[in-house]
Batch of 2 targets.
Target 1
Amino acid sequence: PPPSSLSTDARESRAILEDLRRSGLVREGVKSGAHLHVDARDLIRRGGDATALINAINMHERFEPLLRNLFNPVRGSGLFNKDRAESTTNRFARSLALDHPELLRELNRLPEGQRTKANIEAIFQRHTAAEMRAHGINELSASSWKQMWKYRSLNLINILNINEALPARKGTIEFRMMDL
């Protein structure tokens, strides 16, 4: 519908959420969630300039806390089970700002003309050890490497080559906030 016809009535939103809950389309449990993939190939220009990708990362990280409060994503369909202790554990959608604030500062310090995909990937590679610690990745277990940089509120491994176990092929960025 056109934007002018969209309702801003909170009662209508609550009714929609209640209908969705009753429908059975949404189930509780670990690894339940929603992932939104967006084509991000145009965020990297032909000459390699990736300023738009850095801007998208910054925008997401700046608004992520606000969106998290708005959507209130918690384990076990948190809108309906807020009393469960495990509901507040964020397993699969951590913000970069939470674990890697210095990485974000490094991205922002890149001068114009050096905001390339290769330089962004190099910054992520410098923070690989910290990422491994944040997710409890075993250096000796190749299968656990698939977790590296994937379980982020904004997953960039489909556009950046920052995870050897999962090469970037899709050209997308993935919003995982609703996957806890």
Note: Confidence is low (pLDDT under 50) at residues 1-5, 76-82.
Target 2
Amino acid sequence: TYPNFAHTCYNSGTYTYTYTITNTKAGCSRTATCEVMWYSCGWVTARFNNWVADKIKVGGSINLGPAVPTETGMIGILTVSKDGGTPEVIPTSSPYTPTDPGTYVFHYEVKHSDPRVTDCYSEVSKTIIVEPCGTKAQLSTNKTVLKLGESASLTFNSPASGETAKMEVSKDGGAAQPL
């Protein structure tokens, strides 16, 4: 019996080991292989790069700018949940703009992309309160397709005391004009 063999790798990757026994008298050989994956945790600190206030108004933009891992095999996942609801994955590169008031929890985790690697993990969370921004604008129409010369009947709500409102129109995505 041959002694055990130890081998250490210092570069991440999957290595295939091949062991062959050759019987020269019989003119044949038998081979066995196995794979071993070496990985590096490298940079594994979950963090948000951008400072964001603990409270914002509805319609405000939240850009936490999580630090994206650069080590091979490491991934970052950003989720948001509102008022204790189910977390949804959101892009790490885009600002998030909440449309409703509530308590939003942003959770960022950095981990290895291979589920067999369980010791490379870091996470961070931030809670942001999104407050209402006065009266929610509401606008509707009785018809969405009209013949030239017909009038569109628009229904809208009134602003509260201390708020102002304006109505604009744009044609085919052009510049808005006041009505």
Note: The two ends are 92 Å apart (CA to CA).
